[in-house]
Amino acid sequence: MAPDTFLALLTFAIVATVTPGPNNVMVMASGANFGLRRTLPHMLGITFGFGAMIALVGVGVMRAFDAWPPSYTVMQVLCAAYLLYLAYRIATAPPPGAAGPRARPFTALQAAAFQWINPKAWAMGLAAVTLYAPTRAAESVLIVAGTFMLVAMPCIAIWVMAGQGLARALTSPFRRRLFNGLMAGGLILSLAPALI
Hints:
The protein is about 80% helix and about 0% strand. By secondary structure, the chain is mostly helical. The chain has one domain (about 35-95, about 105-195). The longest helix has about 45 residues, at about 20-65. The mean pLDDT is about 85.
C-alpha cells in the first residue's frame, strides 16, 4: 500500500472510530457505570472483534449476502431489534452496586460478537474494504483490519474516559437514570443513519 493511501486509510479509520455510534455510546455508558478497568474487556472485544470482522468481510463473507439479497434486510431488522434491546438495558440499568451480579459490563466475547450486528461497524467495514482493499488481496485486507485495530483502543478510550468523567456528576439516582436514558436515546439515534 502506497504511503499516501495508508495515510488516507489511517485518517478514515480514526474519524470512523472516534465518531458517535453504538460502540462509543455503549462504552461511554459503561465507563460512567463501571469505570475504565471494568470496561477494558469491552474495549478489547470491540478492537479485536471489528478487526476480525473486516478481515472476514474482505476475504469473502459479503459473497454470502450478495447470493441472497434479502439477507441485508434481515440483518438490518435483527441489528435494529438488538440495539433497541440494548438501549432498554442501558436505560433501566440500576446504579452500580445496587443490582448485585445483574449489573455488569460487556465481556470481550460479547463486544466482539456485537460487531456483527452493529450497523455502523458494517458500514465502516464495507467502506474501508471497498476503498482501501478493492482487489480483496489478503495483504491489503490485513492492513485495513490492522489499521482499525491500531486506532480503536485510543479512540474508544476517549469515550470511556468521558463516561468516567461524567460519573463524578452522577451522584444521585435521578442523575444516573437521566444519563442512562440519554445514552439509551443516543444508541437509538445512532441507528438512524445506518437504517435510512
